[in-house]
Amino acid sequence: MIDVIVVGAGPAGSMAALVLARAGARVCLLERETLPRPKLCGDTINPGAVATLAALGLEGGPLPTAVRLRGMLVSSPRVTVRGAYPSGEVALALPRAQFDLWLTEAAVAAGAKLECGVRVRGPLWRSEGESSEVAGVELSRGSHAVRVPALITIAADGRRSILARDAGLSRHPQKPQRWAFGVYATDVSGMTDMGEMHLRAGHYVGLAPLGGGLTNICVVTGRRPEGRTPEDVIRRVLAGDRRLHERTSAMRPVGSPKVLGPLAVDCEGVGRPGLLLAGDAAGFVDPMTGDGVHIALRGGVLAAEAALQALESGDTRAAITGLASRRAAVLGSKLQFNRWLRRLAGSPTALEFAGVGARVAPGVVKRIVRYAGDAA
What is the pLDDT of residues 64-117, one digit of tens each? Predict the structure, then answer.
């Protein structure tokens, strides 16, 4: 019998599998894609995420050669503020395909069993009287449907988590509904050792240097952006911004642009008996703050700790209560901060007031940069 099935080999799932395997649990990590696989993301691991990895002894792999970012440049139409992290703290910029593969390999090295190319159809339910609980997953192996039982299942299968949806836990809010368009490109001028976030009415643009002249460009827009193709959407947004157009007019895309949306996902709980949520499956974090990877890593650790509690006590309901309490204590204020910024970016009036405030008191923006980066 498998102790824990973890669905999804992103940062949350791999971190959960790693913690569980190190504790001696029998863990199976399931991933739909073949690794390494591309992922639309800002490609930034903030100082808090770096510290979390270091606390678990994860400091090798691609991290030493990643680009060091010493802070964030944040701009509105009226003002630009540079917010540096505290001395000695940096964010790391590297492609998520490399980062995710490295984390997954660490989980496997710790003892987790990995299966890629597996499509999970939904939870495996077990009824006990008038109640039911998740007792594993139903999945497809080739053309065959297979039931895989487990004592605990962790859903870390992303913002469109089939497990969270079938358990009645997740939904897309009616507003704001935003879509992300991302591409790697060369010949972007003016990049420094800072990540960038440019907030505009109706959209925002993130830029991150990846080394070797490569830049991650991520445009997040409203529901119906102008453009016939993803690349056209990105180019139209950049061309319509005087400062960004000057820096990106000569850009040359590397690979095909990626699209993700609608972005926001709200969850009504952190699990059902036998099922625990982690990462984007527990509620998608708006990418504008750059702390999504850190929240995913911490959420994966918390889900693993709750699963270990359930394995030891046999009480899956208490594990849900414990996970909810720990998430509220560890991540609650940060998730509220993300929701507040999500509303700010969706309101041109609020954005205008924020720009005026940043001009008058830039120190406030610098403190927000530190908080978003989970810096000391």
Answer: 999 999 999 988 887 888 888 988 899 999 999 999 999 999 999 999 999 999
Residue 344, judged by CB atoms within 10 A of its CB (0-12, 13-18, 19+), counts as middle
Q: Which residues contact 328 (CB under 8 A, 6 or more apart)?
A: none
94: left (phi over 0), alpha (psi -120 to 50) or beta: beta
Helices within 27-95 (DSSP H only): 47-55
Residue 226 makes CB contacts below 8 A (sequence gap 6+) with 233, 236
Sequence-distant (6+) residues with CB within 8 A of 129 are none
CA separation for the pair 23, 312 (Å, rounded): 12
Residue with the two structure tokens 């440049």: 73
CATH top-level class of 2-43+95-173+263-342:
alpha beta
pTM of the shown model:
0.91
Fold of 179-261+346-372: Alpha-Beta Plaits (3.30.70)
